[in-house]
Records
---
Amino acid sequence: MAKDVFDAPMAPYGDDYGEYAEYDGLGDLIDLKAAFDLPDEMPPLRLPPMADLAGLARTAPMIERLRALAEWLGTGRAVDENAELTGADAAEAATVTGMSAGRLAYLWRLALDAGFVDLDDGETHAIPGELAETFADGDDEAVLEVWDRLFGLVIGTTLEVAASMDPRRAKELYFDGHGAGLAVMLFLERGHGVPVAEAIEVMKNAATEELPPVQAEKAWQSWVRAHGDPARLLLEQMGDLGAVRVLESEDGEVARLTPLGLAALRDQFVDSGVDIPLLPPAEEMTAEDLIAMAPAVSGEEFEAEIAAWLAHRTLESAARDLLSVAADADTDSRMVAITVATGLGADAEPAWRDALDKIQLRAYAKASLSELAGDELPDLDPEDVAWMIIDTLVIDGWDDPDDSALDAVALANRLRQAIPSGQETFAFEMMARVPHPQARDVLTVIGRHHPDKKIAKMARTAAYKASTRHRSL
């Protein structure tokens, strides 16, 4: 079994004590938007009320141990010149918190950095810090501010502290910034979570990227054998604070941010210039709000949001609102809105009929009305088919002409599913005619990547025609 990194000898604080005394969050250490090339806006987020978040913060296992540690100090406990507990006091503190000596040493550092533990004026005794009192008597806002501070410290210092305990093995590995990287990764994948195996692989590659492959593997395996996996260590510490849950799935372990973790990271992202709206209550949500959140939540969460939203409106009015959003949205959002509207059944029929005069909805309106009428196939015009082909290829990712990773064989196979063999010329011509804002991009991708030179040439010709036509809706 791998040795616990926190059971290695603890390097002294020395002159680094208090390094994070003025630290107020992850954003103090790194500009998240610039460092991770984040967009100006992300999908909206639903968070519990502040009181609920504060309740979760108060009961996090790490918080309970920090409070027990502060309470145990009483009127003060002697510390050495490195602000460390010694002898019987260290052993007693480990018992009080239910931790090994090494884990207690890490918790002690965290307590000092976060302000749960302070030193007296002579720096000879440790005493309860002001922040310990905040969790006992502070209001919800104060509690969450302290929790945010701890979260930032856990993200920013866990691997740094681990590396300081085994500098020989750590010298070949690059651990700086991985906590922030993992946190951002978890937030960006908040709807589905991050497979733990993927987090491990990403961190391994980042920590060894400057080393030759053989040396990188040797250095990494040496560290993991001695101390366990760094990604798991971070996830464990974040979970202990109540910021992350690791769940079992059919494909293995998946890590997801809790509401506390989401709220803390959202605050940091917003402070760095990323707009992440908070969703209003279901009765106040618009169809646009509903569709905007879809990319960032799981299928189960989205279904629950749909049900809550529909509970406050008629199905016909819901369908009209959804199709209004679909008419003006990008392709991904349009397809989500159409899918939700399609599930509303016969009550949506009036809205579908009104959508027949909008080219971006006409094909889907015909398909829905045919289904409601019990007809097998809708009567689609060539323009309708062309629009649906473009939408389909955009959803599948065939709309970025500069994407060098596109698979030509996969594109050819997908195109054969959408366009019968021998009908490419006619289909491309119709795709160039319809005023779809991504028609040129899709045709350009086909022209650049299709393995059949004849088909590729036809697509390039159609892409040129699309670029010269007025395509505004």
---
Amino acid sequence: MKEIRGCGTALITPFHEDYEVNYDTFRILVRRQIDAGINFLVPLGTTGEAPCLDDYEKERLLDTVMEQNNGRVPVVAGAGSNCTKHVISGMATLSKYQPDAFLVVVPYYNKPTQEGIFQHYKAVSESTSIPVIMYNIPGRTGTNMTAETTLRLAELRNIVAIKESSGNFAQISEIIRQAPDGFAVLSGNDDETFPMMCAGAKGVISVAANIIPSHVVELTGLLAAGKTEEAALLHHRLMPLFKGCFIECSPIPVKSALSLMGLIENRLRLPLTPSVMQTDLVLEKLLKEYGCL
């Protein structure tokens, strides 16, 4: 298994004027990430508007990533759903593209118990030989996966990591402290990458890296090397953009930024809508400060 470490980009999905996927632009975005030295790629996640993609589009997007990447960095394919059966069937379909891991979110809306979460991931992990990365984001799912449940799941055969976006540092620290050898904790929030990696996390699945991949790669590289003073300076320098990526629901702001940079059209599928003018003005100012415009 390739190590999932450092900075991974939660890739956006670009659309044409008719809201069909723009695969040509997507190829350019993937190559841009690889050329910037990204450590791994994460298509088909929430940032990629996966809930509004059909099965054909998901397959073609993953195929495009694998083709453009050509084995250079690990690829983690989003495969989450609030139905265990659907997750398993979706992973079976996507397995033919041979991603290095699947990213599977805690089931949303259903609000399962901790035992239900455990049984969900157990069934998912037993259905595939491809490693599974769990994703805890209670702000979107309505349910928090506790440290106890996470650590219980970390003992299973091919559950190898968790993307933690709970914002509960005590919980995250407990997972890092007790995690078995080989199990990684990844930050799911750009603004928490610095403290989490200082505590022992192995990297971040980043939204901001869509905009400034090399900067976020540098941040995780400094932290992995133990250069915390240099990393702290960079963290503080990047914090305004980290915050800017979430002034509206993600991926609305990051699509605004990429549109301002001339990389995509500012289009999202309903129920998401394009950024408001105030968001565009904030991001335009930030992009100029970072030399992106």
---
Amino acid sequence: MKHETFHYKSLQDVAERATELNAYLPLSEDVGALLSPFELAGRRIDNHIAFQAMEGTDGTEDGAPGEKTIRRYDRFSKAGPGVIWFEAVATVKEGRASAHQLWITPENVGEFKRLTDRMRENCLKENGYEPLIVMQATNSGRYSKPHGYPEPMILYNCPPLEDTPWPADRILSDDQIKRFEEAFGRAALLAQEAGFDGMDLKSCHRYLICESLSAFTRPGEYGGSYENRTRFIKNAYRAAQANVRGDSFFLTSRLNAYDGFPYPYGFGIGEGSMEPVLTEPIRLLKELKEEFHIPLINISMGNPYKNPHVNRPYDHGNYVPEEHPLEGLGRMMKGLMEIHEAIPDLPIIGSAFTYLRQFSVNQAAAMVENGACSLAGFGRMAFAYPEFIHDLKAQGRIDEKKVCITCGGCAVLLRAGIPAGCVIRDREVYQLPSAD
């Protein structure tokens, strides 16, 4: 299917096209549901908007926040989302996605603490409240580039992701996996010391924990059965829980409910079909909630390196998907609703709203109204137009001349390992590399 360029002039235009495509796309004229306060994780949250983890590739060589990192979180915190899902922070040096990915250590934890204090002060001064701040702890696994070039650490060879199979010495042993489980424990201790309210054990987009959930073909105690494939994430949670002090700091995850790869290479899928089958993701969420008392979950899908249209529908990219962007949005919204119906007392942060530009808030409001998610997560929009929350409060709408246009420029910068941001709305700071 050839993509249509985004051309919708009204909510009715969007609704009519979604109906033609049989895409599940709730929309609401009234955006008030996004702006009301509510209780989450024992805290008052002042609105139903979350800024997703948007990595900037601009930390120092030793992993501390750099100048552009601080600038980004100044903009995010002044914008006033109820939740700021702080970007991916490596748990081990070899698991960094670039030489400038953030990496929390005992030596730089104080610099993270200064940044979280600054974020709260910014938001309180500008908006009259403090945001909930969650640190995303990661091991980049097959996407590790700690020195600027690929040094993958994989759990199994995955044909959909490898044109040429990685050699056997890139496949982690069980003992190596156990060492990385413990690293999430150390990260939790540091995240709490750094002033974060909670920590996300990153389980999405085919980074290491996420990959473990689809390790059907791996032998041994970390592959094959459901119990084995969920061993890594549960042990990492246990390690983190053992290092947390008190009950004010919580654990959670940004979790892929659907990888978008065929069985046996994807999580959240059945044999013989590419449609989501959420039986295992829902089972896992119920178990994480019961054992670790997770107060919320952030749901994602797909892989930004291989099938980015699954979680980040776009008009312009390096390939044309077989589906219309509204069909991708519909899959995400339907998945959120299915998870909510199965676990109604687990608050959910939803994803993928940005594609609808000025109408994204109408879709987000409808999903909050119908209970499918407690917070609407915005990633690319936060890069392009963080102050959209102020405009929404003042005018009941956002400015179509300021929104993200889903060009993918921020992702190009990230993949190139250089500081990432919006090349359209923030072009004085961020520019695409030249073709030379």
